[in-house]
Amino acid sequence: MSYIDRIRACNNADLTRQTPFLVAGERLGWLAPDAVESLSAHSGLFTQTAHGVALSESLTAPDARTQAIAEVAAELAGKGVTRTLTGELFAARNRWSDTPRFLIDRAAASYFGLRCYGVHLNGFVRKPDGLHFWIGTRAVAKPTYPGQLDNTVAGGQPYGLTLDENMIKECAEEAGIPEDMARTAQPVGCITYFREENSRIKPDCMFCYDLELPDGFDPVNTDGEIDRFDLMPAAEVMRLVRDTAEFKFNCSLALIDFFIRHGLLRPDTEPDYAALADGLRRHGADDGAIA
After folding, report:
1. 180 shares a domain with 74
2. Which of 164, 166, 209, 290 shows its CA 20 to 30 Å from the CA of 34?
3. What's the pTM value of the predicted model, to 2 decimals?
4. Is 135 helix (H, G, I), strand (E, B) or coil?
5. φ, ψ for residue 251 (rounded to 5)?
6. Would you say residue 157 lies in a domain?
């Protein structure tokens, strides 16, 4: 196994098997064959066109689209097609700067292949023998990726919060990091990928942060989503990312990005260095244009 395998695992989508999901002439997501068939039953709401499946053009306002999609999402959850709805709303948009086209429960977002956003924070400690990372182990009762390793703090980006507000909230919930400490986290860029999982497309964007934590501070989970934290030397974290699949798929990418930026991976010794740096930013298939 290798670091580049982690990149490939997050960019395994085969879009030739997917149908564009269109809103107001913009490709906003991707639909698997079963989703196309299911949505065709809502003939007044979704229409098959030469370019894909389009949400009714009569729904011109974001609020109206949100209400219509909410009814479909409730039906899908009721049938067990998606996970139980969370009540947490994500904004449907191709670019972070775009006005949301509508809001959707996060549990239903992947059904429509919508781009979701999130925040990922690597908390690290400087010791005499080098950098160490606080690594979380996801709760075994968690419905998604139970028991896998995780970044110090990570979470989806709900509508209505700024990125900094969400980061501060997630720091408190996931690791018990106080607000004054969380505010020192440094935004360090974005990672994008196109993953296919159970025929659903995840064209996601992670906003990444670094947070240097004082030696002696121990993170403590407060929301039940993390079973424990372990302070691991950088060499062990790098081995786990490179040689195992123990980390949740996208958490590996946030760590590889850290390794590159902090010189833990170097171009003269890592043969896939250029491919890794390029692979952390998946371009081209996410601009919403209709071919």
Report:
1. no
2. 290
3. 0.94
4. strand
5. -65, -35
6. yes
